[in-house]
Amino acid sequence: MKMRAFILFMLIISMGCASTPRKPAVPPAPIFYPPLPQRPRLEFLHSISGENDLGKKQSAFQEFIFGKRRDRLLGKPYDVAACKGKIYIMDRMYKKIVIIDLIGKKMSFLNDHGNGSLGDPAGIWVSEEIKYVADMQRKQVVAFDKNDHFLRTYGSKEIFEKPVDVAVDGKRIYVVDMDKEQLFILDRDTGQVMKVIGEKGMFFKPSHVTVGPSGNVFVTDDLHFVIKKFSPDGKFLNAIGFHGDQIGGFARPKGAAVDKNGRLYVVDAAFENVQIFDDQGRILLFFGGPGSNPGSLYLPAGIAIDDNNTAYFQKFATQDFKLDYLVYVTNTFGKNMLNVYGFGHWIGTSLPGG
């Protein structure tokens, strides 16, 4: 009886505290790219660094009874991919794949025990809910099924030296090997190597690979400071960018992604921004920039395009800005570990400040 009375007393106190009037919080000004009064195409929406950023909060009563919940945090996110309801982060601190469950508002590790145990994962790609992870220690690509359980492996130490990234399109698996400085095309069903691209001097420490909706393949040729574009079967098409500090140039290119309209997004870890190019390789826009403010980047690395979870993040967007798809960018340092941006269009009758 005494315990029940004490709990009831604490509930009354917490309810009384909750009823204390508070000044309404002033919402932060929206961050658009390009900035207003120009017509925006991209808006910074949210940052995720731990479970608390997913919106699941403890009540005062739960905290009193069970203690304050310890927030699960991202460590050193490097690469990112997504499917409906989930975001997958390759975390260099944990050397694990962190699953961000947007529906359950929780974080957990991908089940990589047993045959699927990861040694030193580097890149991740999600296709048809199958997760493909390039593992530098195993010298393989490890695949997990739609339930995040081990499925199978691709490649071996006889084929790869340092597989750092992977992309999948249809029956083709593309793997970039940083030490061999080559791009491998594997058959998704058999695992056999179909083609190897990269005669001597073609690549200089390639680090990332992605595939666009047309099937064209883009490889970050890190120390040549360009993104190289190939046809689906590996024919070289052209190079995008150059070494330089002007718009359209690169200092330390990293992750790349292509949207449904063929626009290419490229992360630069040195400039700490993301540049967007059209399907002809012409610069359109850049966003991010160094610093610790919302929307800024701190040694960014990975990027992914996601059109499956816009409904979840629309609540973070300005009322007159309609999201078409999401852009995730990982920061390996700083307080904002995963930045979420929305690509969209203005639906209001007029632009503020216009």
Protein described:
- The protein has a single domain (40-346), classed as Neuraminidase (6 Propeller).
- The radius of gyration is 22 Å and the shape is globular.
- The chain has helices spanning 2-18, 60-66, 310-313; strands at 32-33, 42-48, 77-83, 86-91, 96-101, 106-109, 121-127, 130-135, 140-144, 150-154, 163-169, 172-177, 182-187, 193-197, 206-211, 217-221, 226-230, 236-240, 253-258, 264-268, 273-277, 283-288, 300-306, 321-331, 338-346.
- The chain has three helices and 25 strands.
- The strands form six sheets. The protein has a five-stranded antiparallel β-sheet, with no helix packed on it. The protein has a four-stranded antiparallel β-sheet with strand order 3-4-5-6, with no helix packed on it. Strands 7-8-9-10 form a four-stranded antiparallel β-sheet, with no helix packed on it.
- The chain is mainly beta and 354 residues long.
- The protein starts with a helix and ends in an 8-residue tail after the last strand.
Q: How far is it from the N-terminal to the C-terminal residue, by CA? A: 65 Å
Largest sheet: 5 strands, antiparallel
Whole-number average pLDDT?
Answer: 91
CATH topology: Neuraminidase
User: Which blocks of ≥5 consecutive residues have pLDDT under 50?
Assistant: 6-18
| Coarse morphology | globular
Spatially, the strands of the biggest sheet line up as 1-2-25-24-23
CATH architecture: 6 Propeller
Question: What's the short story on this structure?
Answer:
The chain has 354 residues and is mainly beta. The chain has 3 helices and 25 strands.
Which helices and strands occur, and which strands form pairs?
Elements: H1 2-18, E1 32-33, E2 42-48, H2 60-66, E3 77-83, E4 86-91, E5 96-101, E6 106-109, E7 121-127, E8 130-135, E9 140-144, E10 150-154, E11 163-169, E12 172-177, E13 182-187, E14 193-197, E15 206-211, E16 217-221, E17 226-230, E18 236-240, E19 253-258, E20 264-268, E21 273-277, E22 283-288, E23 300-306, H3 310-313, E24 321-331, E25 338-346
Antiparallel strand pairs: 1-2, 2-25, 3-4, 4-5, 5-6, 7-8, 8-9, 9-10, 11-12, 12-13, 13-14, 15-16, 16-17, 17-18, 19-20, 20-21, 21-22, 23-24, 24-25
